[in-house]
Structure formats: C-alpha cells, structure tokens
Amino acid sequence: MPDDRHTRESSFARSVVLVEGISDQVALEALAERRGRNLEAEGISIVPIGGAQAIGNFLQLLGPAGSDVRLAGLCDAGEARDFARALARAGFGTDLTRADMERLGFYVCVADLEDELIRSLGAASVEQVIDAQGELGAFRTLQKQPAQRGRADEQLLRRFMGTRGGRKIQYARLLVDALDLDQVPRPLDGVLAHV
Fold first, then answer.
1. What DSSP state is assigned to residue 21?
2. How many CA atoms, within 13 angstroms, populate the side-chain half-sphere of residue 119?
3. Average pLDDT of 172-190?
4. Per residue in 97-152, pLDDT tens?
5. Rounded Cα distance, 60 and 73, in Å
6. Would you say 139 and 160 are in contact if contact means Cβ atoms under 8 Å apart?
7. Backbone phi, psi, residue 176, to 5°
8. Is the whole-model pTM more than 0.85?
9. CA 115 to CA 162: how far, in whole Å?
C-alpha cells in the first residue's frame, strides 16, 4: 500500500509518473532536467512504487476511483503484464496492448531501464562512464569470469549494474547525463512527453 509520503506528494501533483524503482525515478528526473523542465514547478511527481506488484494500489489511490490525477508510468518488459492488468482493474480499459498502454502514458522498456540506456549510449560510452567512477577494474573482473565469457559487452554491462546494491541508482543519472539528447530511449522520452 502507498505510504503517507507518497500520498502527500501526489496530492499536490497535477500529474504523477509511477515507476518501479528509485533508479527509474532518478533517470527520469535527470532527463527532465537536461530537457530544461522543472517537474516540481509543473506539478509533476515521479513516484517509485517499490516494484510492479504495487501498481494496482497506486492506480486505485491516484486513478479515476481515487484522486484522479493525470497518470503515466514506466516499467520493465517483464512487468508489462502486471501493469496492463492493474490498468484494466482500475478502469483504464481491457485487453490493453502496449500501444494502448502508451496512449495512456504507460511505457515499457525493451528489457529494463539499464538495457535502454546501454543500447542508446553504446558499450564504449558506458565503459567511459564506469571508468570515470573508478569501477572499470571491477567491470573487467566481471568480464573475465568463466560464466561471463562469450556474452556481449552490453549484456555484461547490464549484469554489472546489478552486481552491487545501489549501483543502478548511482548510474541512472550518470548514464542519462552521458546521453546525446537525440538518442534518448523512446520509453523515457514518451513518459515525460505524456505529462
């Protein structure tokens, strides 16, 4: 169930973007900043819901049966079905396709946020970001592990982002800051354009 902080935060918002986790929130806020948007001044709140399973509670609280604020969202491909079912239960339509979800402002990453950012930047650029954080040695160690041999650099970079707690959050802003604004992943641009 949404906590009091989220309830207070969303009660002042005219639009709320629901995201699975903090790294998604950080990435979208960084992108909005780079695009020259002041989300707070616009009355837009990005709320990490703590995993896709919580989406239904937030839709009930903030959707047509609740506060009825303008909603949007971002989720991983593996969670798209959970989001679609919750949207249907909350009265946003039935048998929602990804195109239907996008019309509602809910975008699905091809795999996840990290995959989107790594593909947009390219492996070499992501390695430069990792190097600037002093972690290239740790990434090279991962590359040398027998279980990782033969995997594409993009796959290894995605794996690297998840090998230490807090790393996804740490790199969310850094990777967005490294993006060419003409190469922003479609789901990130789409969700911000909706609100």
1. S
2. 12
3. 97
4. 999 999 999 999 999 999 999 999 999 999 999 999 999 999 999 999 999 989 99
5. 14
6. yes
7. -65, -40
8. yes
9. 11
Handedness of CA 51, 53, 57, 63 (dihedral sign): positive
Output the six-digit token pair for 119: 């593909």
**Domains plus CATH for the chain?**
4-112+184-194 (3.40.50), 114-168 (no CATH)
Evaluate whether 170 touches 114 at the Cβ level (below 8 Å).
no
Token reading at 30: 């960084």
pLDDT per position as a tens digit, 26-58: 999 999 999 999 999 999 999 999 988 999 999
3-state secondary structure of 48: strand
What angle, rounded to 10 degrees, do the helices at 123-132 and 113-121 form?
100
Q: 93: number of CA atoms within 13 Å, CB side?
A: 13
Neighbours of 83 (CB within 10 A): 26
